[in-house]
């Protein structure tokens, strides 16, 4: 007899709903909160999940600004539903399971094929004592295993037999699984609490390059060939910000020689944004020699780079120069809290 069967009457378990809004969008003409209420009721009716705040919902997607769009995202976020830009989610299930031992419930709302990809993982969860609920568009082939409960997505959200005459009265506060990072972009490793910051990030150059870098890694695209790069969403010429993001991505990947060659081939003189990205990569990979060269060019542009440059001199065992650099920093009133320019850290500062 498993842990679910051993539960005493009246016990309440927690539930985690992971909803891919790209593959299972809100049907046209349906209120988002009505759909959320349907999901909540489906989870509650499946077992021992009863109490408000016990069901945590995370809505994910790879194009959230388009599907479901900013207005819908804003409404969902206002009811404490977490939003995440992501392409995969198995590790989200693992993290939640680590924090919530069985008996507990997991509900996956996604395309039937994608659920099939993680069916073995879900089987392991169920064997461990978790109740697994699934909802997906009408399927053509059966899953390799019959889980606790399965729904056709459209039937679940359009079932007129359920009492959903109002919206806000039916949808209760979720009690987010991760209150520290309710709005996150897994591609760029960015997490914020403000909805405005989240949508701004998803429309930023930083995010665009994060997505491009993911595509390049997956498809073996040469990042050092300028013709391969998507310089923005328009036909405008690439700016320093675009090049700075590219240098940051190449440099963080450890290909410092290619990053340096790109900086040298720019159609304009490298500014603090581009050089700062290269200096940051030098610090990450402890290339004191190149970092010192770049840092000297930066000092006249942005004095906060004394911090990174003094660190690199110390790494290169040039302790006398490092100490002199720190003295200059103290005299200039520069604090260590100042950040190095890095396109992937812009939105982390807002956490």
TrEMBL record:
Organism expressing this protein natively: Brassica campestris
InterPro entries attached to this UniProt entry: PPR_At4g14850-like_plant, TPR-like_helical_dom_sf
Entry protein name: NYN domain-containing protein
One BP term from GO: cytidine to uridine editing
CDD domains: PIN_limkain_b1_N_like
Gene3D superfamilies with a match to the protein in the record: Tetratricopeptide repeat domain
GO terms for MF: RNA binding
């Amino acid at each position: 007899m498993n842990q679910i069967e051993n539960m005493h009457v009246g016990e309440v378990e927690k539930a985690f709903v992971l909803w891919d809004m790209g593959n299972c969008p809100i049907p046209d003409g349906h209120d988002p909160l009505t759909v959320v209420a349907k999901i909540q009721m489906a989870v509650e009716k499946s077992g021992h999940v009863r109490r408000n705040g016990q069901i945590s919902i995370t809505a994910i997607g790879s194009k959230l600004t388009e599907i479901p769009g900013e207005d819908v995202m804003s409404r969902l976020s206002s009811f404490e539903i977490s939003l995440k830009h992501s392409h995969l989610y198995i590790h989200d299930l693992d993290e939640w399971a680590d924090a919530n031992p069985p008996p507990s419930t997991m509900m996956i709302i996604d395309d039937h094929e994608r659920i099939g990809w993680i069916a073995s993982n879900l089987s392991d969860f169920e064997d461990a004592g978790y109740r697994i609920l699934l909802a997906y568009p009408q399927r053509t082939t059966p899953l390799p295993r019959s889980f606790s409960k399965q729904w056709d997505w459209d039937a679940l959200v359009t079932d007129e037999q359920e009492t959903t005459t109002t919206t806000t009265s039916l949808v209760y506060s979720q009690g987010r699984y991760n209150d520290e990072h309710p709005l996150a972009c897994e591609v760029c490793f960015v997490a914020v609490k403000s909805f405005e910051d989240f949508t701004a990030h998803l429309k930023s150059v930083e995010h665009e390059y994060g997505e491009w870098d993911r595509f390049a890694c997956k498809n073996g695209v040469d990042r050092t060939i300028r013709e391969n790069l998507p310089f923005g969403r328009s036909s405008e010429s690439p700016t320093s910000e675009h090049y700075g993001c590219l240098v940051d991505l190449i440099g963080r990947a450890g290909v410092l020689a290619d990053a340096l060659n790109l900086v040298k081939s720019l159609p304009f003189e490298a500014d603090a944004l581009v050089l700062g990205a290269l200096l940051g990569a030098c610090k990450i990979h402890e290339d004191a020699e190149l970092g010192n060269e770049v840092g000297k060019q930066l000092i006249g542009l942005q004095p906060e780079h004394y911090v990174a440059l003094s660190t690199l001199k110390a790494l290169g065992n040039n302790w006398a120069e490092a100490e002199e650099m720190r003295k200059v920093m103290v005299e200039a009133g520069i604090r260590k809290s100042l950040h190095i320019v890095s396109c992937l850290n812009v939105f982390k500062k807002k956490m």
